[in-house]
Amino acid sequence: MALVPLYTTLIFKAAQHKTPLVRLTFDEEYDYIVVGGGSAGAVVASRLSEDRDVKVLLLEAGRVPNFFLDVPLLAAELQLTKFDWAYRTVPQEAACFGLKNRQSLWPRGKVLGGSSVLNYMLYIRGNRQDYDRWEQKLGCEGWGWHSVLPYFMKSEDNRDPSIAYN
Prior knowledge:
The protein is α+β, with helices and mostly antiparallel strands and 166 residues long.
């Protein structure tokens, strides 16, 4: 009985699911070709396409997501499927003791949306000190925490500055 709400949700989502438009023909020329439709590639293609005077092509080796990919609980079930590149780590010397050949699965999304589709819909910003070190010690001007924070907030659509550091 505990799984009834999950199954009900999946059936409802399946009924509502629509396949995104996929072009079967292509133009001969593009101003920009973005390879990889993961988190970064999709954002880059989207931003470039805001200029109506340019033609942008986004290429993705994987498939179009289906409605099961919208359920974080099912993320583990997507590993080693057609949505995953099925990578494994090299054998580890100090970890993975209980795993075959001491190798861990390294799920990477082979799907529009990339690895973000397989990560339980989790998102974690990098450490503030890392960004500040990049700027101060490595000379990466514009990569300090206060410089990148507005971009994090824009991508998160966080409109409450009081929780900007959470």
